[in-house]
Amino acid sequence: MRAPSPSHTLIAADFQRHSWRSLPARLTLPIADSLAISGVALGQNRAIVFRCREAAVYVACSTLCFARHPLEQALRMIAELEFRKVDVAIHESGPHLRPSQVVQDVSLAAQQIRIGPTLTPAAFSVEIAATDETEFRRQLKAICQLARMSAVSVLTIPAAPLGQGLDVEVRRLKDLVRLTGAEGLVLTVDTRMGTLTELPETAVDLCKRVSGLGLTLDPSHYVAGPNQGKSFDAIYRYVRHVHLRDTGRSPELFQVRVGQGEIEYGKIITGLSRFGYDRLLTVDIRDIADAPYALDAEARKLKYLLESLI
Predict the structure, then answer these.
(1) What secondary structure does DSSP assign to the chain, as a single string?
(2) Domains delineated in the chain
(3) What is the pLDDT of residue 117?
Protein backbone atom coordinates (compact mmCIF):
# COMPACT_ATOMS: atom_id res chain seq x y z
CA MET A 1 0.00 0.00 0.00
CA ARG A 2 1.30 3.42 -0.90
CA ALA A 3 0.01 6.92 -0.97
CA PRO A 4 -1.47 8.05 -4.28
CA SER A 5 0.99 7.83 -7.13
CA PRO A 6 0.75 8.69 -10.81
CA SER A 7 -1.77 6.51 -12.62
CA HIS A 8 -0.57 3.48 -14.53
CA THR A 9 -2.29 3.21 -17.92
CA LEU A 10 -2.74 -0.17 -19.61
CA ILE A 11 -4.18 -0.65 -23.09
CA ALA A 12 -5.83 -3.86 -24.29
CA ALA A 13 -6.04 -3.80 -28.07
CA ASP A 14 -8.82 -5.70 -29.84
CA PHE A 15 -10.51 -6.32 -26.50
CA GLN A 16 -13.28 -8.38 -28.12
CA ARG A 17 -10.95 -11.35 -28.49
CA HIS A 18 -10.03 -11.38 -24.81
CA SER A 19 -12.10 -11.85 -21.72
CA TRP A 20 -11.08 -9.89 -18.62
CA ARG A 21 -9.61 -13.05 -17.12
CA SER A 22 -7.52 -13.89 -20.22
CA LEU A 23 -5.87 -10.58 -21.07
CA PRO A 24 -2.32 -10.93 -22.41
CA ALA A 25 0.32 -11.50 -19.77
CA ARG A 26 1.94 -8.16 -20.50
CA LEU A 27 -1.18 -6.50 -19.11
CA THR A 28 -0.94 -8.17 -15.73
CA LEU A 29 -2.21 -5.69 -13.13
CA PRO A 30 -0.68 -4.87 -9.75
CA ILE A 31 -2.15 -6.70 -6.80
CA ALA A 32 -5.89 -6.22 -7.13
CA ASP A 33 -6.49 -6.03 -3.40
CA SER A 34 -4.66 -2.70 -3.21
CA LEU A 35 -6.01 -1.08 -6.35
CA ALA A 36 -8.83 1.15 -7.38
CA ILE A 37 -9.55 0.46 -11.05
CA SER A 38 -11.56 2.42 -13.58
CA GLY A 39 -12.09 1.54 -17.23
CA VAL A 40 -13.12 3.54 -20.27
CA ALA A 41 -14.49 1.74 -23.33
CA LEU A 42 -13.48 3.37 -26.60
CA GLY A 43 -15.61 1.18 -28.86
CA GLN A 44 -16.76 -2.38 -29.31
CA ASN A 45 -13.61 -3.52 -31.10
CA ARG A 46 -11.34 -0.70 -30.01
CA ALA A 47 -8.86 -0.35 -27.21
CA ILE A 48 -9.97 -0.30 -23.60
CA VAL A 49 -7.96 1.99 -21.33
CA PHE A 50 -7.64 1.04 -17.67
CA ARG A 51 -6.24 3.48 -15.16
CA CYS A 52 -5.06 1.76 -12.03
CA ARG A 53 -3.99 3.68 -8.97
CA GLU A 54 -2.82 2.24 -5.73
CA ALA A 55 -5.29 2.80 -2.91
CA ALA A 56 -4.34 5.56 -0.47
CA VAL A 57 -3.58 4.97 3.20
CA TYR A 58 -3.13 8.04 5.39
CA VAL A 59 -1.57 8.48 8.81
CA ALA A 60 -3.77 10.43 11.22
CA CYS A 61 -3.32 11.61 14.81
CA SER A 62 -5.76 11.20 17.68
CA THR A 63 -6.65 14.27 19.72
CA LEU A 64 -6.01 12.06 22.77
CA CYS A 65 -2.29 12.37 22.05
CA PHE A 66 -2.57 15.87 23.53
CA ALA A 67 -5.35 15.38 26.05
CA ARG A 68 -3.87 17.72 28.66
CA HIS A 69 -4.29 20.67 26.30
CA PRO A 70 -7.52 22.40 25.23
CA LEU A 71 -8.95 21.06 21.98
CA GLU A 72 -7.93 24.05 19.86
CA GLN A 73 -4.34 23.84 21.09
CA ALA A 74 -4.27 20.07 20.62
CA LEU A 75 -5.37 20.50 17.00
CA ARG A 76 -2.70 23.12 16.40
CA MET A 77 -0.03 20.86 17.86
CA ILE A 78 -1.18 18.04 15.59
CA ALA A 79 -1.01 20.37 12.59
CA GLU A 80 2.49 21.50 13.59
CA LEU A 81 3.58 17.85 13.47
CA GLU A 82 2.46 17.92 9.81
CA PHE A 83 -0.45 15.54 10.16
CA ARG A 84 -3.18 16.23 7.62
CA LYS A 85 -5.85 14.01 9.17
CA VAL A 86 -7.14 13.97 12.73
CA ASP A 87 -9.10 11.34 14.64
CA VAL A 88 -11.31 13.32 17.00
CA ALA A 89 -12.16 11.77 20.37
CA ILE A 90 -15.74 12.58 21.39
CA HIS A 91 -15.85 11.07 24.88
CA GLU A 92 -18.25 12.08 27.63
CA SER A 93 -15.49 11.56 30.19
CA GLY A 94 -12.81 12.95 27.90
CA PRO A 95 -10.94 16.24 27.98
CA HIS A 96 -12.21 17.72 24.73
CA LEU A 97 -15.51 17.50 22.86
CA ARG A 98 -18.30 15.56 24.58
CA PRO A 99 -21.39 13.90 23.05
CA SER A 100 -23.63 15.93 25.38
CA GLN A 101 -22.07 19.10 23.93
CA VAL A 102 -22.45 17.95 20.33
CA VAL A 103 -26.15 17.26 20.75
CA GLN A 104 -26.66 20.80 22.08
CA ASP A 105 -25.04 22.57 19.12
CA VAL A 106 -23.77 20.50 16.18
CA SER A 107 -22.70 23.55 14.16
CA LEU A 108 -20.56 24.86 17.02
CA ALA A 109 -18.96 21.43 17.40
CA ALA A 110 -18.15 21.44 13.67
CA GLN A 111 -16.37 24.77 14.09
CA GLN A 112 -14.41 23.53 17.11
CA ILE A 113 -12.83 20.57 15.30
CA ARG A 114 -11.51 22.61 12.37
CA ILE A 115 -8.53 24.95 12.57
CA GLY A 116 -7.69 25.48 8.92
CA PRO A 117 -7.32 23.84 5.53
CA THR A 118 -4.22 21.75 6.35
CA LEU A 119 -5.83 19.53 9.01
CA THR A 120 -9.18 17.84 8.49
CA PRO A 121 -11.23 15.45 10.66
CA ALA A 122 -11.19 11.92 9.24
CA ALA A 123 -12.62 9.72 12.01
CA PHE A 124 -14.46 9.99 15.32
CA SER A 125 -13.82 7.91 18.43
CA VAL A 126 -17.09 8.03 20.36
CA GLU A 127 -17.95 7.13 23.95
CA ILE A 128 -21.49 8.03 25.03
CA ALA A 129 -22.23 7.77 28.74
CA ALA A 130 -26.04 8.05 28.49
CA THR A 131 -27.70 4.90 29.83
CA ASP A 132 -31.17 5.84 28.58
CA GLU A 133 -31.58 4.31 25.10
CA THR A 134 -33.50 7.28 23.72
CA GLU A 135 -30.85 9.75 24.87
CA PHE A 136 -28.05 7.50 23.61
CA ARG A 137 -29.61 7.43 20.15
CA ARG A 138 -30.22 11.18 20.22
CA GLN A 139 -26.56 11.86 20.96
CA LEU A 140 -25.36 9.34 18.37
CA LYS A 141 -27.58 10.91 15.71
CA ALA A 142 -26.12 14.32 16.50
CA ILE A 143 -22.61 12.89 16.13
CA CYS A 144 -23.66 11.36 12.80
CA GLN A 145 -24.82 14.81 11.69
CA LEU A 146 -21.46 16.25 12.79
CA ALA A 147 -19.68 13.52 10.82
CA ARG A 148 -21.60 14.38 7.66
CA MET A 149 -20.81 18.08 8.08
CA SER A 150 -17.13 17.23 8.58
CA ALA A 151 -16.82 14.64 5.77
CA VAL A 152 -16.02 11.93 8.32
CA SER A 153 -17.06 8.42 7.31
CA VAL A 154 -16.00 6.19 10.23
CA LEU A 155 -17.25 6.12 13.82
CA THR A 156 -15.68 3.95 16.51
CA ILE A 157 -17.54 2.96 19.66
CA PRO A 158 -16.68 0.43 22.38
CA ALA A 159 -18.33 -2.97 22.39
CA ALA A 160 -20.28 -4.03 25.45
CA PRO A 161 -18.25 -4.95 28.53
CA LEU A 162 -17.41 -8.55 29.34
CA GLY A 163 -20.33 -10.27 30.97
CA GLN A 164 -22.86 -8.82 28.56
CA GLY A 165 -24.62 -11.55 26.61
CA LEU A 166 -23.41 -11.84 23.02
CA ASP A 167 -26.96 -12.11 21.65
CA VAL A 168 -27.96 -8.90 23.46
CA GLU A 169 -24.94 -7.09 22.03
CA VAL A 170 -25.69 -8.36 18.52
CA ARG A 171 -29.20 -6.89 18.73
CA ARG A 172 -27.83 -3.56 20.03
CA LEU A 173 -25.19 -3.30 17.32
CA LYS A 174 -27.60 -4.23 14.54
CA ASP A 175 -29.77 -1.31 15.58
CA LEU A 176 -26.80 1.08 15.73
CA VAL A 177 -25.46 -0.08 12.36
CA ARG A 178 -28.88 0.68 10.84
CA LEU A 179 -28.87 4.11 12.45
CA THR A 180 -25.36 5.07 11.29
CA GLY A 181 -25.76 3.35 7.92
CA ALA A 182 -28.81 5.49 7.18
CA GLU A 183 -26.48 8.48 7.55
CA GLY A 184 -23.94 6.97 5.15
CA LEU A 185 -21.42 6.14 7.89
CA VAL A 186 -19.42 3.05 8.80
CA LEU A 187 -19.77 1.93 12.42
CA THR A 188 -16.94 0.04 14.09
CA VAL A 189 -16.21 -1.35 17.53
CA ASP A 190 -12.64 -1.22 18.77
CA THR A 191 -10.65 -4.23 19.91
CA ARG A 192 -10.36 -3.54 23.61
CA MET A 193 -9.55 -5.35 26.83
CA GLY A 194 -12.51 -5.71 29.15
CA THR A 195 -15.04 -5.75 26.32
CA LEU A 196 -16.49 -8.47 24.11
CA THR A 197 -13.80 -7.79 21.51
CA GLU A 198 -10.82 -8.50 23.79
CA LEU A 199 -10.31 -11.82 21.98
CA PRO A 200 -10.14 -11.95 18.15
CA GLU A 201 -12.56 -14.87 17.84
CA THR A 202 -15.40 -13.00 19.55
CA ALA A 203 -14.67 -9.84 17.55
CA VAL A 204 -14.94 -11.83 14.32
CA ASP A 205 -18.14 -13.50 15.54
CA LEU A 206 -19.72 -10.08 16.16
CA CYS A 207 -18.86 -8.92 12.64
CA LYS A 208 -20.24 -12.10 11.11
CA ARG A 209 -23.52 -11.74 12.99
CA VAL A 210 -23.92 -7.98 12.49
CA SER A 211 -23.90 -7.18 8.78
CA GLY A 212 -22.09 -3.93 8.05
CA LEU A 213 -20.24 -3.76 11.36
CA GLY A 214 -16.50 -3.14 11.15
CA LEU A 215 -13.62 -3.24 13.60
CA THR A 216 -11.17 -0.59 14.72
CA LEU A 217 -8.02 -2.60 15.29
CA ASP A 218 -6.06 -1.55 18.36
CA PRO A 219 -3.36 -4.25 18.48
CA SER A 220 -2.06 -3.07 21.86
CA HIS A 221 -5.03 -4.80 23.49
CA TYR A 222 -4.17 -8.07 21.75
CA VAL A 223 -0.53 -7.85 22.85
CA ALA A 224 -0.94 -6.71 26.47
CA GLY A 225 -4.30 -8.35 27.15
CA PRO A 226 -5.59 -11.91 27.47
CA ASN A 227 -4.74 -12.70 23.84
CA GLN A 228 -1.07 -12.32 24.89
CA GLY A 229 0.37 -11.66 21.46
CA LYS A 230 -1.21 -14.65 19.72
CA SER A 231 -2.25 -14.23 16.08
CA PHE A 232 -5.18 -11.95 15.26
CA ASP A 233 -4.94 -12.41 11.48
CA ALA A 234 -8.60 -13.49 11.33
CA ILE A 235 -9.85 -9.97 12.02
CA TYR A 236 -8.06 -8.18 9.16
CA ARG A 237 -10.91 -8.62 6.68
CA TYR A 238 -13.25 -6.72 9.04
CA VAL A 239 -10.91 -3.83 9.93
CA ARG A 240 -12.14 -0.36 8.91
CA HIS A 241 -9.87 1.74 11.11
CA VAL A 242 -6.64 1.32 13.11
CA HIS A 243 -5.27 2.86 16.34
CA LEU A 244 -1.54 2.43 17.00
CA ARG A 245 1.09 2.92 19.71
CA ASP A 246 3.84 0.62 20.98
CA THR A 247 3.10 -1.90 23.72
CA GLY A 248 4.76 -4.57 25.85
CA ARG A 249 3.40 -7.95 26.90
CA SER A 250 1.49 -6.89 30.02
CA PRO A 251 -1.11 -4.28 31.02
CA GLU A 252 1.61 -2.37 32.90
CA LEU A 253 3.44 -1.99 29.57
CA PHE A 254 0.36 -1.00 27.59
CA GLN A 255 2.16 2.10 26.31
CA VAL A 256 5.91 2.27 25.90
CA ARG A 257 8.27 4.33 23.78
CA VAL A 258 8.08 3.61 20.07
CA GLY A 259 10.54 0.81 19.28
CA GLN A 260 10.64 -0.62 22.81
CA GLY A 261 7.48 -2.72 22.55
CA GLU A 262 6.21 -5.66 20.54
CA ILE A 263 3.84 -4.11 18.00
CA GLU A 264 4.82 -5.36 14.53
CA TYR A 265 3.68 -2.44 12.40
CA GLY A 266 4.99 -3.88 9.12
CA LYS A 267 3.25 -7.20 9.71
CA ILE A 268 -0.03 -5.44 10.52
CA ILE A 269 0.13 -3.27 7.40
CA THR A 270 0.92 -6.33 5.26
CA GLY A 271 -2.03 -8.19 6.78
CA LEU A 272 -4.37 -5.29 6.10
CA SER A 273 -3.11 -4.93 2.52
CA ARG A 274 -4.26 -8.47 1.72
CA PHE A 275 -7.81 -7.20 2.09
CA GLY A 276 -7.33 -3.93 0.23
CA TYR A 277 -7.24 -1.71 3.30
CA ASP A 278 -7.26 1.91 2.12
CA ARG A 279 -8.26 3.90 5.19
CA LEU A 280 -6.49 5.49 8.15
CA LEU A 281 -3.69 4.47 10.47
CA THR A 282 -4.14 6.64 13.56
CA VAL A 283 -1.29 7.46 15.92
CA ASP A 284 -2.99 7.01 19.31
CA ILE A 285 -0.29 7.53 21.93
CA ARG A 286 -2.18 8.52 25.06
CA ASP A 287 -1.22 11.68 26.90
CA ILE A 288 -0.65 10.06 30.27
CA ALA A 289 0.49 11.97 33.33
CA ASP A 290 4.22 11.88 34.11
CA ALA A 291 5.10 10.07 30.88
CA PRO A 292 8.91 9.62 30.80
CA TYR A 293 9.06 10.89 27.21
CA ALA A 294 7.82 13.82 25.16
CA LEU A 295 4.47 12.98 23.56
CA ASP A 296 5.02 15.17 20.52
CA ALA A 297 8.36 13.50 19.77
CA GLU A 298 6.82 10.03 20.10
CA ALA A 299 3.88 10.97 17.88
CA ARG A 300 6.25 12.34 15.25
CA LYS A 301 8.43 9.22 15.44
CA LEU A 302 5.49 6.86 14.91
CA LYS A 303 4.13 9.07 12.11
CA TYR A 304 7.41 8.84 10.19
CA LEU A 305 7.67 5.12 10.83
CA LEU A 306 4.18 4.40 9.52
CA GLU A 307 4.63 6.65 6.49
CA SER A 308 7.80 4.74 5.63
CA LEU A 309 5.83 1.49 5.63
CA ILE A 310 2.96 2.59 3.42
Answers:
(1) --S--PPEEEEETTGGG--GGG--GGGPPSPGGGEEEEEEE--TTS-EEEEEEEPP-EEEEEGGGGTTS-HHHHHHHHHHTT--EEEEEEETTSSS--HHHHTT-HHHHHHHT--STT-EEEEEEEE----SHHHHHHHHHHHHHHHHHTT--EEEEPPPBTTS-HHHHHHHHHHHHHHHHTTT-EEEEE--TTBTTSSHHHHHHHHHHSTT-EEEE-THHHHHSTTTT---GGGGGGEEEEEE-B--SSGGGSSB-TTSS---HHHHHHHHHTTT--SEEEE-----TT-SS-HHHHHHHHHHHHHHH-
(2) 8-54 (no CATH), 58-309 (3.20.20.150)
(3) 84
